[in-house]
Amino acid sequence: MFDKSDSQYIAKAKKSMASTETKAQLTFIKAYMDSTPQLISKLEYSEKELIQVVDEMKKFEDRATSWPGSIGTSVRNKLEYVLGRNPAWKTIIDISRSLKGEIPETPLSYTANELSNFKYLPLVSVDVERSFSRMK
């Protein structure tokens, strides 16, 4: 793949790619996280209704419960931690419930007219990839 005379960084990359641990981690990512780029694209798309976007996130959270092994547990815990630290996430879920005509878990202080204006509320306000980079 690379010439042996290449730089030390290519040698390190080759060694890393040959490691059993790296192969196992890449296999996990391919098997269980393959839909993540599509989810990010859906979150970035501004013309999607809030209900649809929240449902996509809920499906992702549901899939996370079946991620096996220590990597699955670690990624699932990180997802729960990030969403749990976002005080607006529960409010967004409740707004989505209201838009579906369901009763929210927590009473919302918005009028029906105000709630209807959240129909196309974007879930991301900055570039998603930069946000994920900052969370590392």
TrEMBL record:
It comes from the Eukaryota. This is Uncharacterized protein.
